[in-house]
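The aim of this short unit is practical: by the end, you should be able to scan a pair of folded records and say something sensible about each. We start with the first protein, listed as its amino acid sequence and then its structure tokens.
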Amino acid sequence: MNTLDALHSFIVKAKAATYVGDGKKLLSYRPGSIDLQFHDGAFVYMDSYFGGTDFIGQEVVYFEGEPCWAMNYYGYILLPNLIQAAEAGHIIKVSLSALYKEGRFLGGFEYAVDDSIYTDTNEGNVSHFTGKEWITRQGKKGYELIYHGGLIKP
């Protein structure tokens, strides 16, 4: 396994164990933030975000104490009469759990949860990527998240 494959595998495992896996929240690093962390060998994953219905955050992976990868994201409810934050959160967790079981976090993905469709689309790979996820219900987009990230190099 090469270094990028090991990084990719770690990211999938960390994402599955933290937000999606209802991982234990840490004391906030910054006032008002929600912070999650996952360790495996020389890798450490940290996710820190603000908000709920509309939210912004950043994930960072460290290898042997040095930052090596990061992702920024911003998600928001577009139509609060169509979908509430708690419903969106449930759909996202169920959908991403299915994606992570495939051993990936990037690449086109669509998943049905009850009366909603979760869709993720992106370009690039673990080294450099941009993407968007959204939830459609009754033919309307009710939630959207935009993300981007990649390797950090000295």
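Turning to the second protein, read its sequence before its tokens, just as you did above.
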Amino acid sequence: MILRALPPYEVIEEIEAFRTKLNIYDSMVSYSEIVVSVSEVVEYSKIEGGQSFKDRIGKAFTESWKNFGEGCQDFAVFLVRAFPVLLILAVVAAVIVIIVLRSSGKRKRKINKSESEKNTDETNDKKN
């Protein structure tokens, strides 16, 4: 193979020609996005066409207990997560109840005191 030396202007022209071809190919290519979703089967269940009524009832019963157990677990997790909030709400409610009870107790004392003063005034008036 014989290589010949090209003058610099021809090298530049060839480089520009290759760049032009590359730009044309780039404009012809359209980019696409592919989304792949993979999910794991948690519980494999075989679909059977002819299950008897007894089998269906038994399956429903066992699944209902399973769901009940999972529901109890979910409720316990909820209580653990909500415990700080419930504790704060309980403290606030206790403070409000104490304030209301004390204020109603003061009112009752004032009413009882005014009634006792009234009764003593009436008894004094009757004596006179």
